[in-house]
Amino acid sequence: GLAVSNLAMMYVDGKGVRKNHKKARELLLKAVQLREMNAFANMGYLYRNGFGVKASYVTSYMWYILSVKAGYTEAAETVAWLERRLSKNNLKRARTMAERCLKSSYNNCN
């Protein structure tokens, strides 16, 4: 899981491979299926910055809270940063999305 997540981030940054955000997202989703905790945060990073996906703080927040739930405590700072920027409605929406994602064993996370 960690190796897949790290490879994905190489594709995000173009380090050692040609930059390819679509490939990075595909790899991160595989790492999420393997329950790699930093893969959740890396998905949040993609959505926060719009790398290969439509930028969305709501979706980014969903991934970061899943990361914290998976045990990746380093994501808590970003969760707090996003909480200061999202409305109560959008926070609720993101939490609902996260619950749906969890209940689907990470198959319904879009």
Describe this structure in words.
By secondary structure, the protein is an all-alpha fold. 68% of the residues lie in helices and 0% in strands. It has helices spanning 2-13, 21-33, 37-49, 57-69, 76-83, 88-103. The mean pLDDT is 95.
Task: List its salient traits.
6 helices; mainly alpha; 110 residues
Continuous helix count: 6
Structural class of the helix and strand makeup? mainly alpha
Helical proportion, percent range: 55-70%
Q: Distance between the terminal alpha carbons, to the nearest Å?
A: 20 Å
SSE string, helices as H and strands as E: HHHHHH
The low-confidence parts are none
Sheet with most strands: none
Beta-strand percentage range: under 5%
Rg computed from alpha carbons, rounded to a whole number of angstroms? 13 Å
Basic shape: globular
Which whole number gives the mean pLDDT?
Answer: 95
- By DSSP, the count of extended strands is 0
Provide a short characterization of the protein structure.
68% of the residues lie in helices and 0% in strands.
Provide the fold topology.
Blueprint: H1 2-13, H2 21-33, H3 37-49, H4 57-69, H5 76-83, H6 88-103
